[in-house]
Amino acid sequence: MQHILVIGANGKTGRIISKILRDSSDFKPYAMIRKDVQKPFFENLGIETRMGDLEEDFSDAFKGMDKVIFAAGSGGDTSDEKTLEVDYKGAKKAVELAEAHKLQKFVMLSSMGTDAPSRVEGLEHYLKSKKAADDFLRESKLVYTIVQPGGLTDEKGNERVEITKHLNKQGQIPREDVAKALVYALELERTKNTSFEMISGDKDLKGEMKNYK
C-alpha cells in the first residue's frame, strides 16, 4: 500500500481527496495540517495526520511517504504576499522536499489560466504564482502530473469531463471530479510528466486520462 501525503488536506478539495484515498485499497492518506484543532476531523475518518505549515519547515511530513498530492492554495482573495508564500514558495519547498525524499510522484492541483495570467482580471498574481510553481515542478527531477481545472464548484461529481492540454474556453467542474482526477493521476501512465486542463463535459474522466495524448 502506497503512503500518500496530502498537502492542503483541510481545504474543501483536500478533504475530498483524503476520503477517496482512505476508501482505496491501494493508498493510505496522510493529511498534512497546520493546527491541532484540525486533527479531529481526520481522526474521526480514520485518517492519520502530519503537522506542517507551508510557511515554515514541514520536512518531517514527508518521512515515509511514497507520493504526494499538493492541493493547497491561498485562493484568489488573499494578499499578493500571502499568495506568493503559499502558492509559489510553499509549492516550491514541497517539490524540493519530494526530491530530497525521493518520492515516486508529485501530483499538483493548479488552475486553468496559468498560461496567460494577465488575461484573468483580479487573479493575475494568483495565476502567476501557480504558473511559477508548475514550471518549477516541470523542471524538477520528479515524475509529475499537473491538473488545471476550471472554476471549482461544490456540486456532486459525475466523472463526466472535457480534458485537453489547452481548452481555449472557460468552464466549471465539481471539486469531487477534480479530486478523483488527482487520485487517478497517482497511477495512470499516460498522464506522467504532463499537464492538462479540465472542465465538466460528456466524456468519462478515467477513460480520458487513460488515453490522454
From TrEMBL:
One Pfam family it belongs to: NAD_binding_10
Name of the protein described by the UniProt record: SDR family oxidoreductase
Alphabetized InterPro entries for the sequence: NAD(P)-bd_dom (IPR016040), NAD(P)-bd_dom_sf (IPR036291)
Residue intervals of the NAD(P)-binding domain: 8-187
Species classification: Bacteria, Pseudomonadati, Bacteroidota, Flavobacteriia, Flavobacteriales
Superkingdom of origin organism: Bacteria
